[in-house]
Every structure is written in structure tokens, then in C-alpha cells.
Amino acid sequence: MIEFERPAGAEQARLSVVEMVRRVARDKPQVEAVVCGATRQSWAAFDARINRVANALLAMGMQKGEPVAILSPNSVAYAELFMGILRAGGCVTPLSTMASPVALKGMLADCGARLLFLAEAYRDLAADAVDALPLRVVALDFHAPGVDDYEALLAEVPEHDPRIPIAMDDRFNLIYSSGTTGTPKGILHDHGLRAAQMDRIALSGYDQDARTLLSTPLYSNTTIVSFLPTLAGGSTVHLVRKFDAWEWLEIAEAERITHTMLVPVQYKRILDVPEFDTFDLGALRFKWSTSAPLRADVKRDALARFPGTLTELYGLTEGGGITMLAAHEHPDKLHTVGQPAPGSEIRLIDDAGREVAPGEVGEIVGRSPAMMAGYFGRDDLTEDYLWRDDQGRVFFRSGDMGRFDGDGFLILSDRKKDMIISGGLNVFADDLERVLLDDPDVTDAAVIGVPSERWGETPLGLVVLRPGATRGAEEIRARANEGLGKSQRLSAVEARDALPRSSIGKILKRELRAPYWEQQPA
Questions:
Q1: Which one of 5, 356, 396, 444 is most buried, counting C-beta atoms within 10 A?
Q2: CATH number at residue 336
Q3: Are 116 and 140 in contact (CB under 8 A)?
């Protein structure tokens, strides 16, 4: 593993998340800890189950720092496993349910997990991996020959706390990229990073009897960065197995939800529910958005109609620089992702690794106390991810392009790999997408580069039209091109029923590009 110095914060954290959760269980035994569907678990019961999970893992021979894999929808059992693996000294390895069978097998082989906790819903997805790898499978909600039963394992072990010592440089979790295609990378976080992130508990009111509603999957860092401080702050996590906008509104009203983390597509779907304004959401105090840029018009709509503050977070699962936009405080900056968060430092660099001039677009690099330990078993990839300033300090490369405005607010341009180079000129897809989304007949849009004999590649717009739209794709293209520069113009627009998205709402541009490029010579 490549060694590099992180800014002060991670190494100064005195308590691990494991110890914070242990103290909460002692101090608030009757408060609800986790709710999912009809299952409601108090802190006393949750703590006892965490201990049983830890003791079961130790009885199965789990070693300190060993990756333990989970493939399941959100559930109370998932929360027990997450915290129980940590209490036993293991490394939580939550796997993407969006992965292909090949990619999933690659993740399990890469991390070397010997234990897989599996839900019925994903037995088929995991079948190839289970057949090919030396895995001991524990069934969370089904029975099958040759497979251990979760409840039976927990019934065989005691409820006492095993009190495994935890150091800040011990492994905490291993998170893999979505793995729809290609070889996923394992992002390794240690206890120091997660402890450093707990400084947001008091700042965000997670220690004030918060009731946090989470409807993104627990294998995503988007979820984890709200899940952990809610628990460590002694509050209640409400988990949703699968997002549905109407159900989200019903839960938020009935449970008097105070905190939530949503991704942009979820904000849009919730606000688009015709009966949205009839729900009582007055208990909401804090709302966050992350994983992808939240469109300015959606922020504006949320500020007007959605109770509670709205803060957009920009950052990466790997860690590094983080920006925050308190949209309710800066309604004139909704086109940005805010300013560097306290403790974060962000620079912009060109292709040669030199810092760009003020106001120019460059690749975003950042550092903060929250920085991954590295890509698991891949020092080569980790080294490629680092940028060092003239003092030798390590920053993480984001692959995102952006610029700062005159007030120090960051404006995202595009993913570096999504930038289209047409006729030797850089074309930022998100600039074109904003123009398409301004069209009243367009509800969703993506722009990709496709092969062009004349230009090398050229921008293609893919749009989802509103129900009842009478204008066609060519009319959409013509209107968009009226507002674009000559070098930006769309060569074509195609209408689609829907655009492919990951479980946290990111448009899967790689899937969109593939059919256009697969016949091209390497």
C-alpha cells in the first residue's frame, strides 16, 4: 500500500465509529436505532445483535481486517451486519446489486472474501461466483442445502461484546465501483477516515434525536456518509429497501423524518408527485444531495416547496476535496456545487499537471482528512490517482473538470473522460445537456461523443420527451443548436423511453456510448 500523509483530522480522531456506537447503545437503550418496513429495533436490541454478528464471525474464523461481503437490499439485518463486522475487527465489503455476474465474481475474487452474506433477491446474480470461488455463504432470508442460516448462526453464539481492539489505520470498508462492465476497483477506507467524518454529527444535528430516511443502497458511499453519523450520533436510521417517491413521502410524513440524503433523480421524482404539496413534511430540518450534480432548476423548486435546509455535497468515494453548497443561503449560486468544505483544499490542474489560471477550466484535485487508504491491492492505480503539489503534498485526482467563479464557488464542467474532442476542440457534454434540459419538451438528457469521419467524434443528444410532446427529435436538436456555439452543435438528437441509470441515479454513459463505438477499430 502506498503511504502518503493526510491532512490533520483523521489521525487526531480519538474515538472510532465502533466505540461511538458502543457508547450510544449504553446511553440510549430504549431509543429506536434502525427501522426498515415493519421491523423496528431499539438500541439495546440492535447492540445485542451486533455482538452476536461479531461473535458468529469470530467463531467462523474471521481474521482481523478480513473482507466480509454482503449482497442484499437494505434491511435491519444489513445494518446489523455492517456494524457487527466492524465490531469483530473485519472489513465491511458491501457489493453492488447493479453489478453484472462477471463483475460481481471479479469483486469477490479481488477482495479474497471467504464469507458472503446473501439475500434471496440476488441468489441468481451471485450463482456464478458461488460456484467458482471458495465462498462460505450465509443466507439472510432463505433456506438452501449447503448454505448457512443467518438466524441459526446468531442463535449459537453469546451476546457479550467481544471487545476487539480497533486502531485508526485498521480497515473499515472496501467499496467497489458499480461494476456494470469492466474490472471494478476496490476503494479501501480505514477507521481514521470514517472517524474524521464524524465531525459532521453535531454540525448537522445527527445527535439531536434525528430520524434519518435513507433510500439509496448501503453499498453506496452516498448512503454510508449519512448512515454512520446518524448511528454514531445516537439517532434513528430509517432504511428503504427500494426507492419509490410516493412511499418516501408517506414515510417522511408518518415518521416525522428530520434528515435525509437523496440523489438528484430522487429529488426530481419526489417533487414531481402530483400530491407532493399535500404531505406534511414540516419535521424536515436537513436535506442533502450528492452523487451527481443537482440541476439548478430542481434546487430552486426544492427551496420553494420542500421544507428544511438543502445542502449539495460534491466529492468522491475515494475522498479528497469536498465542496458544499448551502443552497438556502446562496440562492444566487445554484449553478455551482459550492465552496471547499472546512478542512478541504481544492486545486485545478491542466493535462501537464500544472495549476490553471484563475477562472480557467481544469481537472479538480483535492485533499482533506477524509482520504482513502488506496485502491485495494492496486498500488499502480493508486499512484495514477495522486497529484503532488510543489511541497510534495498529496491531492486526489477527481477526473472531473471545473472552474472557480470570482467568489470561489466551484462550477463543474464535465467528467474528463466524458469530454468530447470534436475537430480538435474540447466540447463539454454538460454544457449541451443544460441547453437540452431547458427545452420544455425534454425531461431527461445525456450527450455523448460518437464516431465521425470528419471530426473524429461529434456530439449526439439522447433525450426523454415529456408525455404528450408533439415536437420530434429534429426539432429538439434545432432549438438546442440555436443556443450553442458553432463548435458545440449537436450532430443529431435521438429520443429514448428512458436513460440507463445506476442505483444512485448516475446516467451510465459508458452503456450509451458502447453501441456506437464497438465497431470502431482499436
A1: 396
A2: 2.30.38.10
A3: no
From 196, 219, 247, the end of a domain falls on 196
How far apart (Å, rounded) are the C-alpha atoms in residues 61 and 403?
Answer: 51
d(CA 29, CA 57): 24
Q: Which of 312, 290, 291 is nearest to 300 (CA)?
A: 312
- What is the greatest pairwise CA distance in the chain? 71
pLDDT of 257 above 50: yes
H/E segment holding residue 268: helix 264-271
Domain count, the chain: 3
Q: Which three cell numbers stand for residue 87?
A: 465490531
345: amino acid identity, one letter: E
Is residue 256 in some structural domain? no
Cβ 315 vs Cβ 321: under 8 Å: yes
C-alpha cell at 191: 477507521
Rounded-to-integer distance, Cα 51 and Cα 72, Å: 20
In contact, 151 and 161? CB cutoff 8 Å: no
Confidence at residue 522, expressed as pLDDT on a 0 to 100 scale:
47
Q: Mean pLDDT across the chain, nearest whole number?
A: 92
Model confidence, pTM: 0.87
Give the span between the Cα atoms of 53 and 87, in whole angstroms.
9
CA distance 111 to 461: 38
Residue 439 phi, psi (nearest 5): -75, 125
- 167 within 8 A of 248, measured Cβ to Cβ: no
Q: Are residues 100 and 152 in the same domain?
A: yes
Length of the chain: 522
Other residues' Cβ atoms within 10 Å of the Cβ of residue 82? 22
Q: How far apart are CA 486 and CA 433, in angstroms?
A: 16
Please give the Cα distance from 55 to 364 (Å, whole number): 44
Q: Are residues 320 and 454 in the same domain?
A: no
Residue 366 in any domain: the answer is yes
Question: Which grid cell is 44?
Answer: 439495546
Mean pLDDT: which of 6-15, 56-65, 287-296 is highest? Answer: 56-65
- Full domain range(s) for residue 348: 315-414
Instruction: Give the model's pLDDT for residue 405.
Output: 96
The DSSP output letter for 146 is: T
The span from the CA of 110 to the CA of 496, in Å, is 36
* Beta carbons within 10 angstroms of residue 387's beta carbon: 19
Of 144, 164, 196, the one marking the end of a domain is 196
Contact in structure between 202 and 229 (CB atoms under 8 Å): no
Dihedral of alpha carbons 68, 73, 77, 80, sign: positive
Same domain, 63 and 177: yes
- The CATH number of the domain holding residue 74 is 3.40.50.980
- The type of residue at 466 is R
C-alpha 258/C-alpha 173 separation (Å) is 27
- Are 69 and 169 members of one domain? yes
Q: Is 241 part of any domain? A: no
